[in-house]
């Protein structure tokens, strides 16, 4: 398996025999900003393992309004319903930050999940971490202020990027958080005045990460702790 593929945490954690088995089946893909990887209710043909991209999982209402329920980056995969037995999901997966990744055919993933105990346990631990993020996002959106939610969202996104800059318009952020664009503008300006971020021309640069962590709610720490607890941070040997 290439070093680029191993930059995805789940692929890196595969036992060596599984890495050899997966190598010829993994297809490198460019993930373009705004690209829809799957739609609500549609059977999934592949799972995606981002390496430098970030994918947002959104719940879309009948009137077209949406809200983010989780983000996936180099720590995980997009398409857990395949091995959970559902084949499809009511959410939509959209590329939030452009980059690269790998995809694997649905049949290959299900075969590996059913055949290998270590693969199954790894994917189930990741699923538990993802469910924690979804649950905490719901709680955060209900009980915490918009600038706290924005801080949480920025920190979760940063954890899935190699740098400290996000390319993201306020309109896209508003769609992710399920709020009005004016609310995002106000929250972003507040963080900018505090010297925590710089926002210009669709680019958000984080200037003071510890400051963001101090200002966010407990939800970010809960999610990060669960990912750190459940997922390995280095390749299996």
Automatic annotation (TrEMBL):
Keywords: DNA-binding, Transcription, Transcription regulation. GO terms for molecular function: DNA binding; DNA-binding transcription factor activity. One of its GO terms (cellular component) is cytosol. Residues 144-210 form the HTH crp-type domain. The keyword Transcription regulation applies. Pfam families: cNMP_binding, HTH_Crp_2. This is CRP-like cAMP-binding protein. It comes from Sphaerotilus hippei.
């Amino acid at each position: 398996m290439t070093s680029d593929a191993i930059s995805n945490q789940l692929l890196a954690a595969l036992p060596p025999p599984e890495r050899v088995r997966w190598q010829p089946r993994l297809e490198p893909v460019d993930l373009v900003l705004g690209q829809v990887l799957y739609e609500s209710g549609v059977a999934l043909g592949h799972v995606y393992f981002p390496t430098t991209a970030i994918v947002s999982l959104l719940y879309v209402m009948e009137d077209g309004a949406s809200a983010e329920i989780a983000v996936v980056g180099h720590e995980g995969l997009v398409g857990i319903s395949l091995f959970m037995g559902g084949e499809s999901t009511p959410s939509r997966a959209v590329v939030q930050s452009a980059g690269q990744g790998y995809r694997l055919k649905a049949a290959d993933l299900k075969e590996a999940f059913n055949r290998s105990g270590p693969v199954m346990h790894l994917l189930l631990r990741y699923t538990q971490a993802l469910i924690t993020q979804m649950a905490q996002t719901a709680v955060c959106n209900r009980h915490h202020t918009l600038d706290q939610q924005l801080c949480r969202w920025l920190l979760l996104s940063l954890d899935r990027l190699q740098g400290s800059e996000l390319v993201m318009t306020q309109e896209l952020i508003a769609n992710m958080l399920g709020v009005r664009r004016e609310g995002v503008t106000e929250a972003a300006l507040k963080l900018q005045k505090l010297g925590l971020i710089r926002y210009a021309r669709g680019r958000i640069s984080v200037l003071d990460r510890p400051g963001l962590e101090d200002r966010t709610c407990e939800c970010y720490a809960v999610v990060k702790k669960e990912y750190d607890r459940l997922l390995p941070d280095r390749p299996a040997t």
